[in-house]
Design a protein that fits this description.
alpha/beta; 8-stranded mixed β-sheet; 6 helices; binds glycinamide ribonucleotide
């Protein structure tokens, strides 16, 4: 059985981290077994830390505030990911801009809460909710040196109805994310 290892990076709540662990960690699929080799968090107080521990994985805390600049932080990230043996890195709510040092050394995918290329950046949910668009959605894309700009792998959309409040809109986005991200990782890895 071929084992395919992934690294998961997160910064906060960790609901997507939890779904990745629940649906993929140590699960056997047709062409491989997927193993979460490491979880990495840049914020020492992130709620996701306990979620990782619940699956027996002690997250590596790499606190970005302790580094001189972005590249020094990214070097530490790259080293940790390479040491873990992960062949794919999944950014699941990882809220840091990444430098070319990271993007040139690590094959990574990112989850983004909008229909890219619309609403790039850190306020995607609010901006997409406030826009006049009648549909909204989520994207998973390869990480490139352009912020939220790498090749799109998968998307899902939904209708934005008149009666939707921001809270309902967010719940809808998170529910879709919890299905699409694990499914996309599985599709990328479960190949001959
Ligand atoms: C998710 O909605 C994800 O799409 C978003 O952060 C949230 C993390 O939630 N990512 C971005 O905005 C990236 N620019 P979680 O910590 O509960 O998984």
């Amino acid at each position: 059985m071929v084992i395919k290892k992934i690294a998961i990076l997160f910064s906060g709540e960790g609901s997507n981290l939890e779904k990745l662990l629940e649906k993929l960690h140590n699960q056997v699929f047709e062409h491989c077994k997927i193993e979460v080799a490491t979880t990495i968090c840049n914020r020492p107080n992130a709620l996701g830390i306990e979620k990782s521990r619940a699956y027996g994985i002690e997250p590596l805390i790499i606190d970005h505030t302790l580094f001189e600049n972005r590249e020094a932080f990214d070097k530490a990230l790259v080293e940790a990911i390479q040491n873990s043996g992960a062949q794919l890195t999944v950014l699941a709510g990882f809220m840091r801009f990444l430098t070319p040092y990271f993007t040139q050394n690590i094959k990574a995918i990112n989850l983004h809460p909008s229909l890219l290329p619309l609403f790039k950046g850190g306020n995607a949910i609010e901006e997409s909710f406030a826009s006049p668009m009648k549909v909204a959605g989520i994207s998973v894309h390869f990480v490139s040196e352009v912020l939220d700009g790498g090749e799109i792998i998968a998307q899902q959309c939904f209708e934005k109805t008149e009666d939707m409040r921001l809270e309902d809109f967010e719940v809808k986005i998170h529910n879709l994310e919890h299905e699409l991200l694990p499914q996309t990782v599985k599709n990328l890895l479960n190949r001959k």
